[in-house]
Amino acid sequence: MEQTQPSLSSSGAPTARNVFLYVLVLITLAMSAINLGTLGFQYINLYVPDPSLVQCYGTSCQDAIRWSIASLVVMFPALVWAWRALERDVTAFPERRRSRARRWLLTFTLFVAGLVLLGDAIALIYSWLGGDLTVQFLLKLVVMAVVSGTVFGYFQNALSEVPSSAKSRMIGRFAIAIVTLAVVAGFFSAGSPFQASRSRPGEPAP
Prior knowledge:
Blueprint: H1 16-47, H2 60-92, H3 100-129, H4 135-159, H5 165-189, H6 193-198
Helix pairs in contact: 1-2, 1-3, 1-4, 1-5, 2-5, 3-4, 4-5
């Protein structure tokens, strides 16, 4: 009697598409976190300057803000799309929640986020011992802690055997709100594209 072979899409093993999506999540997550942190740092440099340091040369802070906004506008929606596609796949095939590719990605993500949190604690203690705790420095530590803590909290929940959907939604909505606010604030800090084109050297004055 002829035996029926299970199709790749109905098996518990991750497909090539899944592996691609996990790699895409890893890359877009790293880029989104880095650029979100950069935006926070540049806002602090602009609005809470350290009088002992020159941190913005000409339009350097505005240029960094524009680059981070451009990166987030591309990377963050790609991250949301790829992760939702993977979550739909896990919902359809629950056995894939324990796949090696998924657990490797989530564990590596938690490892990196944990290192950042430890680095925050070390930097804070070092600055306290040296008497160098400025308001700007503390605000930048808060930015790093919020970004890494959000990533750590979300993926720690996703890695658990029975993830809390309520917790995932709450952290996910918080992340979307933070990214949206950071991008919108960038247009006030770095100016709109129209304002940037009018401020170029050599442009005639209005």
